[in-house]
Design a protein that fits this description.
3 helices, mainly alpha, single chain
């Protein structure tokens, strides 16, 4: 992402539009509401989280996991 601007719709006057035109020329721009932006960010974070879980599963399948007994777990819990 190149930039994110947080402005109210009523603040998007001709000067703001002109500044965007000057900066981005012929590039396509997407304008989102804050709610839509938050939803996209949540989806992005969820995708990262799920990718981490997938990696952990692959690591376990590849033998990179750690094996402990129930007694070891209880010992760790009891400190």
């Amino acid at each position: 992402m190149d930039a994110a601007y947080h402005v109210k719709a009523k603040e998007m006057g001709r000067d703001f539009i002109q500044a965007l035109e000057n900066r981005y020329h012929d590039r396509d721009l997407v304008i989102l509401t804050r709610e839509d932006y938050a939803e996209l960010e949540k989806a992005r974070r969820n995708a990262e989280y799920l990718a981490g879980i997938d990696k952990a599963i692959r690591d376990i399948d590849d033998g990179k996991g750690i094996t402990v007994t129930m007694e070891q777990l209880e010992s760790m819990a009891n400190g």
